[in-house]
Automatic annotation (TrEMBL):
It comes from Vannella robusta. Keywords: ATP-binding, Coiled coil, Nucleotide-binding. The keyword ATP-binding applies. SMART domains: BTB, SAM. Residues 725-791 form the BTB domain. Residues 274-338 form the SAM domain. PANTHER family: SERINE/THREONINE-PROTEIN KINASE TNNI3K-RELATED. This is Uncharacterized protein. Residues 849-876 form a coiled coil. Pfam families: BTB, PK_Tyr_Ser-Thr, SAM_1. Residues 417-659 form the Protein kinase domain. Residues 333-363, 660-685 are annotated as: Disordered. One of its GO terms (molecular function) is ATP binding. InterPro entries: AB_hydrolase_fold, BTB/POZ_dom, Kinase-like_dom_sf, Prot_kinase_dom, SAM, SAM/pointed_sf, Ser-Thr/Tyr_kinase_cat_dom, Ser/Thr_Kinases-Pseudokinases.
C-alpha cells in the first residue's frame, strides 16, 4: 500500500490525545508487543461484580484518549468491564498499522485477557466499529476455529457498528469493480455462530448502509440489525443503540444464572409548554435563577434529571455556595417525595426586578416568536446543537435563562377540534387548517420516526426564529414525545404559486409584477442562505411558495429533510451528491422560467422523465421568442449542470436589479488566457533560494486540495488505469484511460464532448489547446480534487484549464501565483478598471476564506465543550431510576 493510501486508511491522531497519566491505563506485554490499553471494572452499589467483559476495537481515526469517555459510558450503561487497546502506530503504541499487525494485536489482547486476567472466554463480548469491525470479525473467527478444534468455549457475543464485507467492497462499488484486497471478512462471517448485534447509520457517508446490511445478512445468528437515524461519526451517541445494546447483553445473559437483567425504563418527558415544569422556573421559584446557565450547559433540561442531583453534581457545576447547595438539595428532596419543589430552606430572594429590567435594556432584543427573547442567548444554545440563527444576531450579550422562556413560548400543546380541516395528505404527513388563539393556522403533521424526535425539536426551534417577509411564519411546534410532531405555521390565504400560475389571473399580470414575485422569492432564499450555518430549502417548488395579499411570495416547507420533488430536483442529486445551496438555485431557475413564460418547465413530460433527461442528457426547457435575452441569461445560469458554475443567490438578486433598471445582464464568460499574458513579466524575480532565478525556478511544488474531490485522493491514482476505465482521452500521440461518469460529473465541457463521441469512445484534444502533461494533471484533478502545481507547469496547466473550461482549476492556479507574489493580468490589453475589479474579487474570496476558517474554529470549540460535559452527563444517566 502506498504512503498516501495508508495515510487515508489509517487516520492516526497526531500527536496522541493522551499520555501515560490517562485514567485506568495499563500495558499489555504479549506476543512480543507492548500494547497500551484501558481496563475498567464495573462494581454495583452493593459490591456486585460485572458478569461480562467487553473487548473494544475502535475505528481507524480514534486512539484511547479520544474514546476514554465513551468507554466509561459503556461501562456504566451496560454494567460490564471494558478492555480497550490501541492498534500499532496509534497513541502510545509503537510500530506501523497494517491488516496483519492489527489482527495480531487483537489476538494478543484476547490471549492476555484469557490467561493473565483470568476472564472466562464465554463471558467475553467483542465490540468493533468501522475498521474495527473487521478486526473483531477476524478475532471471533479465530476464537471459534480454535473452539471447534479443541472443543472449548467460545465468546458470548459480538456487537458491530457499520460492518462491511471488505475494503474493496466499499471503494470498489463506486468504481464498478469487486477485486478483494484488504480486511476481507466475506468468507469468515458464515463461520461465526455466536449472537451478533449489528447497527449502521442510514446517513452513513463512509460505509454505504447496503454494505452493512449485506455483511449482517451473512451471519447465521444475528440477534438484530439496527438502522439508525445518524451518520458514521455520531452513531455512538444514539439512545436507540444503547437501549438495544442493553437488551442484547440481557439476551446473552439469560443463560448465565448469576446475571441480573437490566430493564430499560422509558422516561416520560414532561410537556415543555407547562412553565411550572421547566428547570429555569423551578430555579426561579427557589430564588436561584442565577444558576440557569450552569444547569443548561450541563444537560439539566428535564426535571426528571434534576431529581438525580447530589452534592458532587453541584460542585461539578461550580456551585460552591453552601447555602445555595443546601437550598437546591432540600428542594430536590421535596421533589422526590412528590412535592412541588418548594423547600423551607429556600430563603434566597429573587433578583431585584429593577436589576433585571436594567440588564434587559442594555441588551439588544429581537422578536423571534410570540415573545421577545435575547438573540445571543438563543444563538449560543443553538450552536450547542450545531445550529445557529442569522449572522446579524451574533453581537448580543448572553442571558441563558431566556432560552427556556423562548422554548416555552414556541412549544404549543397538541390539539384537535371540530374546526380542523384536512387540506392535503401524503407519505410525509398531513396538512390541516385549524384555529389557534383565535387565528387561522396550518398544522403540518410530520411523519418522524421515534428516534428522530430530538432532530425534529432542534429543527422546529430553529425554524421558529426565522422571521422574514418572504418566509412563512412558523409560530410554534407540538414538541411532546407521545404525540404526532406538528409544525404550526401562519395561514396564507392567497394560495400557492402553482394555483396562481395556472389561473386566468396570470394573463393580467404585468412584467413588473412578475419581476416583483421573482425578487420576493429570491429574497426569501437569500435570507435562508445567509444564515449561519446556511439553511438549504431542499424542496423549492411552486407548490411550496404561497402568495399573500398583494402577491407577496412566502417560502414554506424548508429544511425539514424531505426528498425534493423530481421535476425541480438538481441534477447532482441523482448522482447521490449532497444537496447544497446550488441545488436551490437550480430549482429557482426552473420556477423563474415558469413565472416569466407562463409555461411549466418540461411541459408534456412526467416528473420522472423530465428529471432523467435533465440529469442524464442535460436537456433544459426551450424559451419562447418573447423572452428577453436578459431573462434567458439569468435563467440559463441558474440551471447549469455543474453546481460550481451556478450563481449565488446574491448574484441572482444583483441580476434581477439590473433587469429592473434596464441594465443588460452580461453572460458568464471567461476571458481568453494565453501563457505569456498571464503575468506581467515571465522572467520576474520573486525571491526564493536563488534571487537571480525566474519565478518558474523559485516557485515550490504544491498539491492543492480544492475540497471538491469526487471521492478522495487515491482516486487520482486510477487515472490512466485501463482496468477502471471505459473511455480514452487523446492528446497528440498520448492516450489516457478514464471513466466517463467521473469526467461528466465534474466537467460540463467533458460531459458535452463525451456525449458527442462516436463508438470509438475517444476524445481528441488538439495540442494547441492543451499539452499532454497539463491534460494529465487536470484529469487527476477532476478525479480527486487535488491539483499538483509547480513553477514549471503552472502556466501550462492554467492555459489548458481555461481552454477546456475547467474554471475552478484556473482559479486555483491564479491563487497559487498570487500567493507567491507573481503579478497576474487577465489579458494583454486589460485596462486598469478590469485589474481593480479582479483585485476586489480576490480580496472578497480571501475574506470569505478567513470567515470560513473562523466558523470552523467556533464549531471545534463547541465540540470541545460537548466532550468535556460527556462524563458528567453519563454519570447522571446511570443514576436514573430503573424498574
Amino acid at each position: 500500500m502506498g504512503a498516501a493510501q495508508s495515510h487515508l486508511l489509517y487516520q492516526i491522531p497526531s500527536p496522541p490525545t493522551y499520555d501515560r497519566s490517562l485514567d485506568d491505563l495499563i500495558w499489555i506485554h504479549e506476543g512480543g508487543m507492548e500494547i497500551p490499553a484501558i481496563y475498567r471494572e464495573w462494581k454495583g452499589d452493593n459490591g456486585d461484580a460485572a458478569v461480562f467483559s467487553v473487548i473494544y476495537m475502535g475505528s481507524h481515526y480514534h486512539d484511547l484518549g479520544m474514546c476514554s469517555q465513551w468507554l466509561k459510558t459503556l461501562q456504566l450503561t451496560l454494567r460490564v468491564n471494558v478492555l480497550a487497546f490501541d492498534y500499532p502506530g496509534y497513541g502510545l503504541h509503537s510500530g506501523e498499522p497494517s491488516e496483519e499487525s492489527m489482527y495480531k494485536c487483537a489476538l494478543n489482547v484476547f490471549t492476555h485477557a484469557k490467561n493473565a486476567m483470568n476472564i472466562p472466554v464465554d463471558r467475553m463480548l467483542l465490540f468493533g466499529k468501522s475498521l474495527g469491525t473487521a478486526v473483531a470479525i477476524h478475532l471471533a473467527y479465530s476464537i471459534e476455529a480454535e473452539a471447534r478444534k479443541s472443543s472449548c468455549e467460545s465468546i458470548g457475543g459480538m456487537t458491530l457498528i457499520t460492518p462491511f464485507m471488505s475494503l474493496s467492497h466499499i471503494v470498489g462499488s463506486k468504481l464498478k469493480y469487486t477485486k478483494a484486497d484488504l480486511f476481507d471478512s466475506s468468507k469468515k462471517l458464515e463461520k461465526i455462530s455466536v449472537p451478533v448485534l449489528t447497527a449502521h447509520g442510514e446517513a452513513d457517508e463512509i460505509v454505504d448502509p447496503k454494505h452493512s446490511r449485506k455483511a449482517a445478512s451473512k451471519f447465521p445468528n444475528v440477534w438484530k440489525t439496527l438502522e439508525l437515524d445518524c451518520n458514521h461519526h455520531d452513531i455512538d451517541f444514539s439512545d436507540d443503540l444503547l437501549d438495544q445494546w442493553i437488551e442484547f447483553v440481557d439476551h446473552i445473559g439469560e443463560s448465565v444464572p448469576e446475571y441480573k437483567p437490566r430493564v430499560v425504563k422509558q422516561l416520560v418527558v414532561p410537556s415543555q409548554y407547562r412553565r411550572e415544569q421547566t428547570v429555569d422556573n423551578w430555579l426561579e421559584s427557589i430564588g436561584l435563577g442565577k444558576y440557569a446557565q450552569q444547569f443548561l450547559i450541563n444537560g439539566y433540561f428535564s426535571m426528571d434529571v434534576v431529581k438525580t442531583l447530589d452534592i458532587i453534581d453541584l460542585q461539578g457545576m461550580d456551585i460552591m455556595d453552601e447555602q445555595d447547595q443546601e437550598t437546591i438539595l432540600s428542594s430536590v428532596t421535596n421533589l422526590k417525595s412528590g412535592g412541588d419543589g418548594t423547600a423551607q430552606e429556600a430563603k434566597n430572594e429573587s433578583p431585584d426586578s429593577s436589576d433585571i429590567e436594567n440588564a434587559s435594556k442594555k441588551a439588544k432584543r429581537v422578536s423571534y416568536g410570540p415573545m421577545e427573547v435575547n438573540a445571543k442567548a438563543f444563538n449560543e444554545v443553538l450552536e450547542h446543537y450545531q445550529c445557529s440563527p442569522s449572522k446579524s444576531d451574533t453581537d448580543i450579550p448572553v442571558e441563558w435563562s431566556e432560552f427556556m422562556a423562548f422554548a416555552s413560548s414556541v412549544s404549543i400543546p397538541y390539539w384537535e377540534d371540530e374546526n380542523d380541516e384536512s387540506l392535503a395528505r401524503g407519505f410525509f404527513g398531513e396538512v390541516v387548517k385549524g384555529i389557534w388563539n383565535d387565528r387561522p393556522v396550518i398544522k403540518r403533521k410530520l411523519q418522524y420516526k421515534k428516534s428522530q424526535f430530538r432532530k425534529f425539536c432542534r429543527e422546529a426551534v430553529t425554524l421558529c426564529q426565522l422571521k422574514h417577509p418572504n418566509i412563512v411564519d412558523v409560530i410554534g411546534a407540538c414538541m411532546e414525545k407521545n404525540v404526532c410532531p406538528c409544525l404550526i405555521t401562519e395561514y396564507v390565504a392567497g394560495g400557492t404559486l402553482t394555483s396562481f400560475l395556472t389561473s386566468k389571473a396570470l394573463e393580467e399580470v404585468t412584467d413588473k409584477q412578475r419581476l416583483d414575485i421573482a425578487k420576493g422569492i429570491a429574497g426569501g432564499i437569500q435570507f435562508l442562505h445567509n444564515c449561519v450555518p446556511p439553511i438549504t430549502h431542499r424542496d423549492l417548488t411552486p407548490n411550496n411558495i404561497f402568495l399573500e395579499e398583494g402577491r407577496v411570495p412566502k417560502l414554506a416547507d424548508f429544511g425539514m429533510g424531505r426528498p425534493p420533488s423530481f421535476l425541480y430536483m438538481a441534477p447532482e442529486l441523482f448522482s447521490k451528491h449532497p444537496s447544497g445551496l446550488p441545488g436551490d438555485i437550480y430549482s429557482y431557475g426552473l420556477i423563474l422560467y415558469y413565472i416569466i413564460t407562463g409555461t411549466p418547465p418540461f411541459e408534456g413530460l412526467s416528473s420522472a422523465e423530465a428529471a432523467a433527461k435533465a440529469s442524464k442528457l442535460n436537456i433544459r426547457p426551450s424559451f419562447p421568442e418573447s423572452v428577453s435575452p436578459a431573462w434567458k441569461t439569468l435563467i440559463t445560469s441558474c440551471w447549469q449542470k455543474n453546481p460550481l458554475n451556478r450563481p449565488t443567490i446574491d448574484q441572482v438578486i444583483q441580476s434581477l436589479q439590473k433587469i429592473e433598471s434596464g441594465t443588460e445582464v452580461e453572460e458568464d464568460s471567461s476571458p481568453e488566457l494565453h501563457p505569456v499574458s498571464l503575468i506581467e513579466d515571465p522572467e520576474a524575480r520573486v525571491g526564493g533560494k536563488d534571487p537571480n532565478a525566474s519565478f518558474a525556478e523559485n516557485l515550490p511544488a504544491k498539491s492543492i486540495n480544492s475540497g471538491c474531490g469526487l471521492l478522495s485522493y487515491q482516486l487520482g491514482l486510477l487515472v490512466n488505469d485501463v482496468k477502471y476505465s471505459d473511455f480514452t482521452v487523446c492528446v497528440g500521440k498520448e492516450k489516457f484511460a478514464v471513466h466517463r461518469a467521473i469526467l461528466s460529473a465534474r466537467s460540463e465541457n467533458f460531459a458535452a464532448q463525451i456525449d458527442q463521441a462516436d463508438e470509438s469512445r475517444e476524445l481528441q484534444i488538439d495540442e494547441n489547446v492543451a499539452s499532454a502533461g497539463s491534460v494529465l494533471s487536470l484529469l487527476k484533478f477532476l478525479y480527486s480534487g487535488y491539483l499538483n502545481l509547480s513553477g514549471e507547469n503552472v502556466l501550462d496547466v492554467m492555459n489548458a484549464a481555461n481552454n477546456l473550461n475547467i474554471l475552478q482549476a484556473v482559479d486555483l492556479c491564479r491563487e497559487y501565483l498570487e500567493e507567491h507574489g507573481v503579478p497576474i493580468k487577465v489579458t494583454e490589453d486589460g485596462d486598469e478598471e478590469d485589474k481593480n475589479e479582479n483585485t476586489e474579487k480576490v480580496r472578497d474570496v480571501k475574506e470569505s476564506l478567513v470567515a470560513a476558517e473562523a466558523s470552523i474554529q467556533n464549531v471545534e470549540s463547541v465540540l470541545d465543550v460537548l466532550n468535556r460535559k460527556l462524563e458528567s452527563v453519563t454519570a447522571r444517566m446511570n443514576a436514573l431510576p430503573t424498574l
